[in-house]
Amino acid sequence: MHKFRYAALIAAALFGLLIFARAAVGPLVFPVSVRTPINIESFCALLITVVFLCGGTDNTPATPKRQANIAIAVFVIVALVVAGFWRAIGIYFLADDLVLVTRANAFHLSKVKELLTTAEAAAFFRPLVHLTMAGTAQWAHFDPHMWRLTAVALHAVNSVLVFMLAARLGLSRMSALLAGALFGVHGLLPESVLWIAGWFGTLSTFFVLCGLILFLEHLARKGPSRVWYGIAALAAMAFALLTKETAYAFPLLALLLAWDRQVVVRRAVPMLIAFFAGAAVIFAYRWSLLGGIGGYTDLSGGGPLLMRLSIISALRSLLLRIWAVLYFPVNWSRQPELWLALLTALYIAALVWLAAKSSNRRSIAFAIAFVLVSALPPLEQLLIGPDLQKSRELYLPLVGFCLLLGRAAEALPASGRAVVSTTLVVFNLAALQHNIDIWRDVGETAKRTCAAAAACSKNGSSRVSGVPGSLDGVYFLGVGFPECVGMAAQSSASALPAVSDPAELTWNADKRELSCSATHHGSP
Fold it and tell me: Residue 478: which pLDDT band, with cuts at 50, 70 and 90?
């Protein structure tokens, strides 16, 4: 086993060296051709995860430790989230943002019954998140700053909840802080936190985390309070299920928690039965509204996309792709800066060291299982590419990944744990900034595009062609373009000279802008 671990570590280090080289100098042709690094990231990540899993065999469950200075830990996590996202608060609305914000501002209380009894586009049933968006619209209106602030605040709360869950699972203060801080500034977060459509996942994860923590309290308590904690956990699960389908992993995650804590069967089984039964009831109601399983539709052949998922694609997603994105959350649509490349080298070294020192196979297995189980509901969406599009589907699995690295860090001495934790967090904070830069640029492009379209359309109808659905992995204006033009028309942003005749709007891919030209009807 030791020889296998060392061989896997050496192979992971070699793949990591290629990732660093790709980040430092761009596409490679020697010693091997590396243009899109997602494959080498996948193999490097898989090898590191296997080494984590082949650590020691201490099966004693960690005892929850007294978390002194909790207020300081919470402050550090929130401060990191603010530092990570403050540059992104002003990003303009993109794609589904525009539809969701428009719908939220038009919402009326008379629509509540309809929201609770009808499906959305014959694909989803997520009434709770639409209610929260309608509430947010009461103060945010059409201001992207207020919407982004609300989303970042929700993510900060989730980051603190990850810290609390890690502490409740027995991690030391420093390791629990690593889990919460890493979740707070992980590089894959822009699509989950900055895109309003990612709100479904962040809100659902909030309820899942609350439910899991309450379930742990239920297992630890005696007397009447134990019952109330169980009821609260069941309610949290129900709210999560009414927010996004990812939460259907909740009963299995609760089962994993009971296994990890080595809880006496008779203490856990009644609540676990309630979780599975409650999820089944809500799923049956959802099925009746949708007339089937629902979910994303296969645009080429019709029908649920989940039904088109092959075993090979599922294995590629679960064993390779999701780990590549979790370990190396860099949007490769833009070449990383040199400073990010240098941090990548330090980060890979820290991962290899952490994997080499890892122990307690059972606790590591729990964290890996957490990732895989929570990835099952959105499995058909998880062949994520190097541009990180659809990475929002990994928001809940990210909790398990942060627990994995937090638990692995427990094997290090305090000084080594501090060095590794700092390296992991700093690299992800840097990757987050790299990715946010791309989102900022696309947001500015969207704002200019909608202003140009609004100005061009002032005096007559217009035809639009070629506007892309996404740019550099960021959802653009394939959805929500009419709403975007309408918002721009009501603001001073549309200051371009208007044309008097019906206009032709054409997307210029090289300049990334719309060109406006009048069409003169009746001319020879």
Answer: confident
Asked if residues 244 and 201 have their Cβ atoms less than 8 Å apart, the reply is yes
- Which residue, among 314, 302, 252, has the nearest Cα to 279 in the 3D structure? 252
Q: Is residue 46 a contact partner of residue 320, using CB atoms and an 8 Å limit?
A: yes
Residue pair 38/321 in contact by the 8 Å Cβ criterion: yes
- pLDDT tens across 410-436, in order? 989 988 999 999 999 999 999 999 999
With CA atoms as reference, report the closest residue to 357 among 420, 424, 418, 409: 409
Characterise 360 by phi-psi region: left (phi > 0), alpha (psi -120 to 50), beta (else).
left
Largest Cα separation within the chain, whole Å, is: 89
Candidates 149, 163, 150; CA nearest to 71 is 163
d(CA 24, CA 361): 35
Give CA–CA dist 196/193, Å, rounded. 7
Q: In angstroms, rounded to a whole number, what is the distance separating the alpha carbons of residues 396 and 186? A: 12
Distance CA 504, CA 453 (A): 10
Answer yes or no: is pLDDT of 459 > 60.
no
- Going by C-beta distance under 8 Å and a sequence separation of 6 or more, which residues neighbour residue 233? 211, 212, 214, 215, 218, 254, 271, 275
Q: What DSSP string runs through 165-202?
A: HHHHTT--HHHHHHHHHHHHH-TTTHHHHTSGGGHHHH
Q: Are strands 470-471 and 474-475 parallel, antiparallel or unpaired?
A: antiparallel
pLDDT score of 307 = 66
Tokens representing 210 are 């609350």
Q: Report the Cα 217 to chain-centroid distance in Å.
A: 27
Average pLDDT, the chain: 88
pLDDT tens per residue, range 25-64: 888 776 666 778 899 999 999 999 999 988 766 555 666 6
- Please, are residues 148 and 291 in contact by the beta-carbon 8 Å criterion? no
Query: Do residues 211 and 241 make contact, with C-beta atoms less than 8 angstroms apart?
Result: no
Rg of the Cα atoms in the chain: 24
In the chain, domain spans = 2-290+305-379+391-440, 447-518
Rounded distance between C-alpha atoms, residue 288 and residue 291, angstroms: 5
Q: Which of 376, 370, 401 is nearest to 318 (CA)?
A: 376
Closest CA to 190 of 62, 84, 105: 84
Whether residue 435 contacts residue 87, with contact meaning beta carbons closer than 8 Å, is answered with no
User: pLDDT tens, 353-407?
Assistant: 999 988 778 889 999 999 999 999 999 889 999 999 999 999 999 999 999 999 9
Structure tokens at 308: 């088109």
Report if pTM > 0.90. Answer: yes
CA distances 203 to 273, 299, 380, Å, are: 24, 28, 21
